[in-house]
Each structure stands twice: as structure tokens, then as C-alpha cells.
Amino acid sequence: MRVFVRLGCWAMAVLAIGMEANAQAQKSAVPTAPDAGKAVVVRPTNPNQVLATVNGEKVTKSEFLDLVRRYDLPTNDLEQVYNDGIETLINVKLINQFLARQRLPVAQDKIDQDLANIEKGLKENGSDLATALIQSGQTIDEVRKQLAFRQQWIAFVNQKATDNELKRFVASNQDLFNGAQVRIGHIMLKLDENATPAQKEKVRQRLLEIKKDITSNKYKFAEAANKFSQDDNRTDGEGGDIGYHARNGGLLEEFAGPAFKLKVGQISEPVETMHGYHLILVTDRKGGTPFKLEQQKNLALSLYSSDLQKSILLAARKTAKLEIKPAPSDLFETVQAPLSTKGPDAGKAAVPTSKP
């Protein structure tokens, strides 16, 4: 169990964070024609089945299956896919609800142009809008609504991202921009996702005991990692080492943030992530290169946009009324492979047709 970003943590990507705008919107607002051999979602049975509610707004089976197809999610762990997918859609709903409260104007002619560009892209890939809508289970009104929210998000970021604000953001987050890397070791103790505060504190105290044993030279960090760490993906003898990482290189922010604050040789206090509690050791640091905002403003806008969304989601989740239902047993019954005339497995399902 690594500390890399899972779907539930990069949920903001569904809204195409960053300022690529039109080109990215054309790629992701409606799925393009599927590649041969990849799983596709056809029209689902009971598409309006409610899987969750977000402040009373429904998350439907159709939306979930479209997410699975659009982002080509792995299906070897269906429970994980369901949990992460629902978390992603919850985050999308929360951001959209936030944008609706801002009452930002929407240019319908801009949406018309985006749709025309989408249709052009689909035709270039041998498909068309009607087919793509059937495959995704979406209506044209739903796609227009997605494009409207995207337009509002871009307008909202443009309002916030003044020159002075971008300069402040870059200055306060140099590690995000200069390419600096740290080499990290960690010791992880697992937490059940439903752990009580008392259970969490027990695990945290155990990790503090391990840290004390390291600082008193009872164990070296690597020895303690090999002996105690519960990281499922660790290799015997690696001593908790997970190599060099950049600040925005795919690690969970709640892990990367504390790691980059450490000096070489320093061990963190227990750090909580979705996986459990960690002790983090930085064993080396590679300096980056100066970041020139004037030459890379689009990158600064993209990372600022991502950080802004995270802040909005953290605030929204404190008061949000969420209800998540168990995954229905027939959730993946409509996922199948495109028909092929090659090979003995032509036409067979590319993923399991039901939960294991």
C-alpha cells in the first residue's frame, strides 16, 4: 500500500483543473470512440439507480459507469474502484454546487462552440456525438451542463488568480515548481477506514514508540521499517525506502507536504493518510532550478487551480450531507469488450461481470 495518489484524491481532475480549457474539454466532456480491446460501458440497466447523495443531489449508476469508462479505471479491485469512483463523483458534485452558488455567467455560444469541437474530434476518431452519448449513458443536456460548469470554473480561477496572487502562491510553494526531489523512507502502521478516534490514537502512540526506539539507537530506521512497517507493497530488506519524489510527483499531499518540510536525516511525527499513520525519513535532497513565472504561467495557473479546488473541497466536506450506498451486485454487468474478429476470446467480457 503505497502513498501515491488514488482516484479519490485526484477527484478534481474530472473537472479538468488547470487552464487548458477548450482543448481538454473537447477530449473529456464526451468519451471518444473506444480503442479495440478496451472495456466500454454500454447503456446500463437501471441507469438512474442512486448510489449516493451529496446535499440531496443524486449520484447515479450511469454517472459512475461513465467515470469508469472515461478514465479507463482498473477493475481488478472492484471494491476499491467503487469507493474511489464514488469519492470522485462526490467531489465533482461539491465543486459544481459551489460554482452554482457563485452565479457566474455562462456563455451559451461558447458551449455551442465547445460541442461543435467535440463533434469534430469524434468524427476524426471514427465516431459521432449520438454514439458517444449512448455509450456514456449521458444526454446532450448533461454534457452542456458539464461544459457550463467547466466554463464557470475557468472564470472563477481567472478572478482569483491575479498576478500578485500567483506570485504569492509560487513564492509560498517553491517545491511545487522548482523540480526539487527528496528521497523518502517511511514506516506505516495500518488504520481501518472505520477506525475510532481511540483506535487511531493507539496506532499513533505505537508509532511514537517506534520513533523513540530509533532515536535512542535501539533500531536504525531501515531496521525498524523492515521489522514493523505494514506497507503491503514493501520489499523485504528495502528499509522503507520509496526512492526520490518531487512534490507534485504523485504522492498524497498529506504525505508529501510533511516530507518536504524535513531536513535530511530528520524523522517526522506520525503523519496520517488514508492508509494509516507514517513515520517519514528524508535521506537525501536534490535541489531544483529557479522557477520563472513569466515563462511558465500556465503551469502556475494549473497548480494554483488544483490547490484552490482542494481548499474548496476541504471546506465543503465539513458541512456536506453525504449518503453513500453499498455497491449494487450488478454494478458492472454492463461493462463489456468491443467485439473483435481476432483470437479465441473475441467478444468476451474484458472485466468481471459481477462483484467477486
Which terms summarize this structure?
356 residues; alpha+beta; Triger factor/SurA peptide-binding fold; Chitinase A, domain 3; 4-stranded antiparallel β-sheet; 3-stranded antiparallel β-sheet; 12 helices; 9 strands; 45% helix; disordered C terminus
Description:
The protein is α+β, with helices and mostly antiparallel strands and 356 residues long. It has two domains: 7-165 and 300-336, Triger factor/SurA peptide-binding fold, CATH 1.10.4030; 179-286, Chitinase A, domain 3. 45% of the residues lie in helices and 13% in strands. A four-stranded antiparallel β-sheet has the order 5-4-7-6, with helices on both faces. It has a three-stranded antiparallel β-sheet with strand order 3-2-8. A two-stranded antiparallel sheet has the order 1-9.
Q: The biggest beta sheet, please?
A: 4 strands, antiparallel
**Integer count of domains:** 2
Q: Estimate the global geometry from the Cα principal axes.
A: globular
Termini Cα gap:
21 Å
- CATH level-3 fold name of the largest domain: Triger factor/SurA peptide-binding fold
Oligomer: single chain
Number of helices: 12
SSE arrangement, N to C: HEEEHHHHHHHEHHEHEEHEE
**What is the radius of gyration?**
23 Å
Beta strands, count: 9
**What is the residue-averaged pLDDT?**
80
What structural class is derived from the secondary structure elements? alpha+beta
CATH class wording of the largest domain: Mainly Alpha
Order of strands across the widest beta sheet? 5-4-7-6
CATH architect. name of the largest domain: Orthogonal Bundle
**Low-confidence segments, ≥5 residues, pLDDT <50?**
4-42, 334-356
Helix content: 40-55%
Percent of sequence in beta strands: 5-15%
